[in-house]
């Protein structure tokens, strides 16, 4: 990893490159995706079968799209020792955290007036789970649990099969443990189309969540408005702020935990200690050589990995707020003293023993986070994303009478006679 000075001239160029890595031109994929979506909309299951054979190399009948109980039982027999125990602990922690986010309806009344807000869960939600080498059970947990806590009645999960028509055992077990009844063997843009429009086998949903490749992301953009979506996620990123109390071995390992995701992932260390920066750089090189995904890690670090020297921690935080990272680790002696100064971050990890992967799997907070600087205005996926709110208004005859003139004046100012008349007729 290269080291640059916070005040150095190469800083601006690096940050420009960092922004551009997420500037995907969706127009390059738009026509292809629109064709797929249109075909699924018109031809339903028949189109899904064709695309599954074309892109996933497996010929599935309509009856084989929906996962059977026998397939789920087989998945339980295939999981590794200890997986079920770890999975259930993660479910407990994630559920407990999200239950604290639950919002209730509220009402207030005074002198013939009652106002309030009614909170209602979205009825039907679709979850996209990547397949193949990127089959992540944690994606099932993080997308489904807040929906369940919110009170969503129906969750439909789609995920692409392998060439034998099978799904990841870990993913299937995760879905079963959460009580998901509908699991379909379909992926790609065609799966997004099925969820958005509905087919003979897959009933439509009202909202689609979950990560996917560029075709899935483009499809989500295309169907937005017809259904709701969560967000369009960019490459993963981690920013570590560390002082001389940090262990370079820990910091290096945490940076690499995100660099292994993708060649476009960014891993950045900001420190006020040059000695720590050099030690981390050496440790990154040593640990990278031992990793299975070494090639991906090296490309990620060469392009978007940096160690930045700051004059002090205040400067480090100012830069972090500018970058608004997806994951922010405060590997400093007194992390809680800095917490209040953090304005923009998807998830904040405090201290030397709170590595980012803890948040990915087990701690409880959601790992679906805003990327590419969008933490300046977006939040992590939450229970609130699976609810909608209705305003509630009640006025008695007497209460309306006290404000009727003001309402009619405002309606008249806007030139809306029918609005004015709606009040007027009640007092003629």
From TrEMBL:
The UniProt annotation places NAD(+) binding at 128, 190, 213
As its record notes, the protein acts as a catalyst of: L-histidinol + 2 NAD(+) + H2O = L-histidine + 2 NADH + 3 H(+)
Q: One GO CC annotation, please?
A: cytosol
PROSITE patterns associated with the record: HISOL_DEHYDROGENASE
Q: In which pathway does it act?
A: Amino-acid biosynthesis; L-histidine biosynthesis; L-histidine from 5-phospho-alpha-D-ribose 1-diphosphate: step 9/9
Q: Tell me which domain of life the UniProt entry assigns to the organism this sequence originates from.
A: Bacteria
User: Which GO BP terms, alphabetically?
Assistant: L-histidine biosynthetic process
* UniProtKB keywords: Amino-acid biosynthesis, Histidine biosynthesis, Metal-binding, NAD, Oxidoreductase, Zinc
Protein's UniProt name: Histidinol dehydrogenase
Gene of origin?
A: hisD
